[in-house]
Design goal:
The protein has 386 residues and is α+β, with helices and mostly antiparallel strands. It has three domains: 98 residues, Beta Barrel (OB fold (Dihydrolipoamide Acetyltransferase, E2P)), CATH 2.40.50.100; 44 residues, Dihydrolipoamide Transferase, CATH 4.10.320.10; 201 residues, Chloramphenicol Acetyltransferase (2-Layer Sandwich), CATH 3.30.559. It is built from eight helices and 19 strands. The strands form five sheets. Strands 9, 12, 15, 16, 17, 18 and 19 form a seven-stranded mixed β-sheet that branches. A four-stranded antiparallel β-sheet has the order 1-8-6-3, with no helix packed on it. Strands 5-4-2-7 form a four-stranded antiparallel β-sheet, with no helix packed on it. Strand 10 and strand 11 form a beta hairpin. The longest helix has 17 residues. About 5% of the residues have low confidence.
Length: 386
């Protein structure tokens, strides 16, 4: 008998969180090669693939699609070195698995959750009789209940099922609020010096294929502020505050109705402005295309939420990206009239301004560190060298 090798969720792959087994890319009895993709897992951040740990035959599938799994969980087994019956004519039959246990009547139907299958069985229904309103046409529990009720309209409303990403974001936000007491401080930044620098250097970088966005300046200024107040670049533990040497800055990136993801610029303290701009561009493009890998979204020590790009003047509190200790918020850049002193007289001028906020975990940080961080951050932006 061929040696059976476990297919497991890698430890640390999802930073200790649960993921969902979205899809088996092979079925029991299929021949698989070493490192060939077998499974797609989805977290609140990315979709990752689990590859085959050996060459042989997929012997059994132990976990159904759409089920939650944890790091270290055994998902199935490979019969190492075995070949399919098509090649040998007499290979041992794969063990009964969740894939082969499904009836032929449902083999070609859209994938169903265990709850929906149970409800269909209870009422003696076939999923092919029901039009699915879920993702990719999947039949939902509400679809079955509506069919059982005779197709009556559900009070002129539409239920849009949550994606797994939205469910994970919701759980992450609730956990953060329950874990950390949030406090927000607000400063105002004059972006005139940055705007002048960007105007002079934007075209040159674009000739090199790099977009010089304001966000790149915010990242660079955040690096200076984190150097000045290293306690902000930290993680809270009951026994002490863990300070990080590297400054790994995550950038909140909206994915439309799908949710939000936070790609990370690792080692930002070593990068000049043009390198930051290039990395931002790469990560943003990968995020919008759904091509971010686990390394792209892991290891962040501090996060920036540039919510002003969608028109928001100020947001408070911006929920901290746990287990970090603070999050920086950037409001909309707009021209405002301000009073300045010139030759001893007060005069009104038009300046490019924005509100900036720092929301902190008050267990780890106090007003002193918060205000010092924002003071350095704003001073760096307003004193940007020509």
């Amino acid at each position: 008998m061929a040696e059976l090798i476990d297919i497991v969720v890698p430890e640390g792959q999802q930073e200790g969180t649960e993921s969902t087994l979205m899809q088996w890319l092979k079925q029991a009895g299929d021949t698989v090669a070493l490192h060939e993709p077998l499974i797609e897992l989805e977290t609140d951040k990315v979709i990752v693939e689990i590859a085959s740990p050996a060459s042989g035959v997929l012997h059994e599938l132990l976990v159904e699609e759409q089920n939650l799994v944890e790091p270290g969980a055994v998902l199935g087994r490979i019969a190492a070195g075995a070949m399919t019956a098509a090649k040998t004519g007499e290979v041992e039959k794969p063990a009964k698995s969740i894939a082969t246990a499904k009836s032929a009547a449902t083999a070609d139907q859209p994938k169903l959750s265990p709850a929906v299958r149970k409800l269909l069985e209870k009422h003696g229904l076939d999923a092919s009789m029901i039009t699915g309103s879920g993702r990719d046409g999947r039949v939902t529990r509400e679809d079955v209940e509506k069919h059982v009720a005779g197709g009556a309209p559900l009070a002129e409303e539409t239920i849009v099922p949550h994606t797994m990403m939205r469910k994970r974001i919701a759980a992450h936000m609730v956990k953060s609020v329950q874990t950390a007491p949030h406090v927000t401080c607000v400063f105002q930044a004059d972006m005139s010096a940055v705007a002048a620098h960007r105007s002079k250097n934007r075209a040159g970088l674009e000739d090199q294929g790099v977009k010089l966005t304001y966000t790149a300046y915010f990242v660079k200024a955040a690096v200076e502020a984190l150097r000045a107040v290293p306690e902000v670049n930290s993680r809270f533990h009951d026994e002490g505050l863990e300070l990080f040497t590297d400054i790994n800055i995550g950038i909140g990136t909206a994915l439309g109705d799908e949710g939000l993801i936070v790609p990370v610029i690792h080692g930002a303290q070593e990068m000049p402005l043009d390198a930051i701009a290039g990395k931002l561009q790469t990560l943003t493009e990968k995020a919008r295309k759904g091509e971010l890998g686990q390394d792209d979204v892991s290891g962040g020590t501090f996060t920036i939420s540039n919510h002003g790009v969608s028109g928001s003047l100020m947001a408070s509190p911006i929920i901290i990206n746990q287990p970090q200790c603070a999050i920086l918020g950037i409001g909309k850049l707009e021209k405002r009239v301000v009073v300045v002193e010139s030759d001893g007289r007060d005069e009104m001028e038009i300046r490019l301004l924005c509100y900036v906020t720092l929301t902190i975990d008050h267990r780890a940080l106090d007003a002193h560190q918060t205000n010092k961080f924002l003071s350095v951050f704003v001073a760096t932006l307003e004193g940007w060298p020509d």
